[in-house]
Amino acid sequence: MVSSSGLFNPSFTGFRMPLSRRALTLSLLALSLPMPALAQQAAPPLALERSAVHMLTAKSNGRTYDIYVKLPPKYDAPENAGRRYPVIYLTDGDYTFQVASGVTRLPHNAGKLEQAILVGLPNAKGEDGMAARRRDLTPWENPAMPGPNGGGKAFAAFITGQVLPLIDATYRSDPARRTFVGQSYGGLLGLWILFSQPQHFSSYLLTSPSIWYAEKALMALEADYAKNHKELKARLFMATGAFEGVKKGAPSPRYNKETDMVGDQQKMAKGLRARGYKGFQVQDMVIPATIHETTFPIGLVYGLQWLYGQDQLSGWTPGE
């Protein structure tokens, strides 16, 4: 007989069976269960330390999103009761949040990176991930793209109008120190926010930004911003993989065939430096031997070192 605890209980008195028959019955029952089923019953799911999940429905598009949060080490320690932390917001949170959680764990504990709250922004619940991100992370409609796109402005309104206030009201965040992290389309959305509503984030960490999107509409957006602004209070880090460029004269299956994401990033960074915006810093780098799908983890580490480096990483810049 099985007790309420889920364990076999030989002292249970509601039903009696001779010991030999009882043991035989239990053995047969155990043998009748598939081993994977037994393993699944015994093994608890993996839980991320100091983490929480909030669920929000966006007023701007009506879709529901999970919001992942991970707090830094000793967040609840008495000595940190009055401490406020920078917050790192990661689009494509289904993927990027786990990477950020892993790569910051040791340097946070060792004091090599300034501790920060991590916030993951996954795709809308119950939707195909690729289709959802193509819609939510692109700020303009592009007829050349398959499927719905151009919903980035609504998604940005959700982030700035609902997610940021939720985090600031729930946790000891520092609203003056927010970092926007995006890769690919997420990098596209990050640059759109930087040039259209820069008041929301103090820094941006963007890998493989899709500057090519919608005939490079970002270039025109930045030019429009420059017409009326001499100041841009933000720090921008961009990184693209070497194999995301087009290598002329030496065809290789590793390099892009048409879209020169390396060239686009370099042109954007050069143009921003030439503007000389007051209060603005930009760092860009090309990461050796990575493709579009492998650039993010390495670029994230470099970007965090530049933005949040402590101890011997303090003041680090790419190229050292």
Explain how this protein is built.
39% of the residues lie in helices and 20% in strands. Mean pLDDT is 90; it is low at 1-26. With 320 residues, the protein is of the alpha/beta class. It folds into two domains: 1-43, no CATH class; 51-313, Rossmann fold, CATH 3.40.50. The chain is globular, with a radius of gyration of 25 Å. α3 crosses α9 (295-308) and α6 (185-196) runs parallel beside α7. It starts with 18 loop residues before the first helix and ends in a 12-residue tail after the last helix. The relative contact order is 0.11. Strands 1-2-4-3-5-6-7-8 form an eight-stranded mixed beta sheet, with helices on both faces. The chain contains nine helices and eight strands.
